[in-house]
């Protein structure tokens, strides 16, 4: 489905040596060093020799953040503080530049795209891409959220969108989401894929009460039990428990990895999509950088399952790709030190360890 090449690990030692020989103690730049290594390794894959890698100066080109929006039938189960109509209202807010993600993208230099993956009210704003898979998913605790055919179409839409972004010269993409009820779907995917109790996966989302959390736990338990026969296949698991936007984010992650792009993963919902993506093709994990640890209860356990060390921990729980957007200066700083910082030999400084 997606032909994703594993990263050439022979280049990793060249990159690590270059980092280690900068004028600093070993490891003194902490996670920025690992970030620089990952970014450079991804962006150097088209080179044909270790010497070329040593001379390579990686840069982030035309970083693009795509917000996928979708409505969830499970919202009817009383698992959110807001009605499903808010999803479409927020798409309009994105289109008119008034949301947090618009502010951060303008400030930091992201190109922002908005995708209607399937919402109750179809959007006709010129800046919103129509990739609708329906109006709303079915409730996950009573039936399949969507059909396998809808998931397949979602992957096709996502691949087309990522290809178009790549053709603008972009080499770094991030994905955000909007969808009332989508933390419940993400928690169900986490519980199913990691074989964890629902109570360890469900959190307060955008700020529900303890009573609503209890309801969410019950809904997730019902959903996982209902779909046991589908849980050995990640595509069927996604169809059973996911959402229109989660399906397209999963497809977009896989498509971007296939194209050798850097994929910046946002919070809980996007990490759930990343988890599904790694179950479809394990090599997709090589291309991911995790932006932040959100305030959603299950996110840290999900990050651990993905062997991910996020760059930020700001107690965010907004979604929209906000954490991914805020990580861009750190990515740029990682490459700035890698490209511009002198080596001990260049600076005539005695090497320290």
UniProtKB/TrEMBL annotation:
The active site lies at: 320 (proton acceptor)
Q: Which Pfam families has this protein been placed in?
A: DBI_PRT
Q: Write down the PANTHER family for this protein, in alphabetical order.
A: NICOTINATE-NUCLEOTIDE--DIMETHYLBENZIMIDAZOLE PHOSPHORIBOSYLTRANSFERASE (PTHR43463)
Q: Which gene encodes it?
A: cobT
Q: What does this protein do?
A: Catalyzes the synthesis of alpha-ribazole-5'-phosphate from nicotinate mononucleotide (NAMN) and 5,6-dimethylbenzimidazole (DMB).
Q: Which InterPro entries match?
A: Nict_dMeBzImd_PRibTrfase, Nict_dMeBzImd_PRibTrfase_bact, Nict_dMeBzImd_PRibTrfase_N, Nict_dMeBzImd_PRibTrfase_sf
| Class of this enzyme | transferase
What name is this protein filed under?
Nicotinate-nucleotide--dimethylbenzimidazole phosphoribosyltransferase
Pathway it acts in? Nucleoside biosynthesis; alpha-ribazole biosynthesis; alpha-ribazole from 5,6-dimethylbenzimidazole: step 1/2
Keywords, A to Z, come to: Cobalamin biosynthesis, Glycosyltransferase, Transferase
Identify its protein family: Belongs to the CobT family.
GO MF: glycosyltransferase activity
Q: What is its EC number?
A: 2.4.2.21
Spell out the CDD domains in the cross-references: DMB-PRT_CobT
